[in-house]
Amino acid sequence: MADQQGRTFVVTGATSGLGLVTARELAAHGGRVLLAVRDAARGEEVASSLRRAYPGAEVEVRRVDLLDLRSIRRAAEEIGEEEAVDVLINNAGISIPDLAWVSPASVGEGHASSGWRCVAPELAVSVR
Ligand SMILES: NC(=O)c1ccc[n+]([C@@H]2O[C@H](COP(=O)([O-])OP(=O)(O)OC[C@H]3O[C@@H](n4cnc5c(N)ncnc54)[C@H](OP(=O)(O)O)[C@@H]3O)[C@@H](O)[C@H]2O)c1
C-alpha cells in the first residue's frame, strides 16, 4: 500500500474481520482512520491496539449503528462537521442469503430488513 499520510478514512465495521485489517493497514501506512463501529468500547480497544502497534497513528472511534438510520445521520453529520473525509469504506455488514429489499415500513427511522446493506451506506454518503 502506498503512503496514506494526509488522507482521512472512515471504515465501518472496523472491530473485526476485513474492516479491522483494512483499518490496520491504513493506519500502518499513515492514514488518519476513523473506526465507525456500533460497539464503542470494542472500538476503543482496537484504536488503542493500533496506536500501540503504530506509534503516531491517528486512529479514532466514531459510534454508528448501521441498523439505525438516526445513528447513521448523527454520525455522518458529526464527522462532516469535524473534518473532510477522503474515503468512506462501507465494509460493515453481514451475509444474508435472502436479498430482501427495503420494505416501506423499514424506510422510517428504524429498519430491520437486510435492505440496510443498501440503504445505510447510501445514506451515509448522501448525508455529507
Ligand atoms: N469474509 C468474507 O469472506 C466475505 C465475503 C464476501 C463479502 N463479505 C462482506 O465483507 C464485509 C466484512 O465481512 P467480515 O467477514 O469481515 O465480517 P465480520 O468479521 O463479521 O465483521 C463485520 C463487522 O461489521 C460490523 N457490523 C455488523 N452489523 C453492524 C451494524 N448494524 N452497525 C455497525 N457495524 C456493524 C461488526 O460489528 P460488531 O463487532 O459490533 O458485530 C463487525 O465489525 C461484510 O459486509 C461481508 O458481507 C465478506
Give structural notes.
This protein is α/β, with parallel strands linked by helices and 128 residues long. It has one domain (8-127): Rossmann fold (3-Layer(aba) Sandwich), CATH 3.40.50. Helix content is 41%, strand content 15%. Strands 3-2-1-4 form a four-stranded parallel beta sheet, sandwiched between helices. Helix 1 runs parallel beside helix 2 and helix 3 runs parallel beside helix 4 (116-127). Mean pLDDT is 83; it is low at 97-108 and 110-115. It binds NADP nicotinamide-adenine-dinucleotide phosphate. Residues 12-13, 15-19, 38-39, 64-67, 91-95 line the site of NADP nicotinamide-adenine-dinucleotide phosphate.
CATH H-level name... which superfamily? Answer: NAD(P)-binding Rossmann-like Domain
Instruction: Count up the domains.
Output: 1
CATH architecture assignment: 3-Layer(aba) Sandwich
Strand order of the largest sheet: 3-2-1-4
Structural class: alpha/beta
Overall form = globular
Fill in the CATH topology.
Rossmann fold
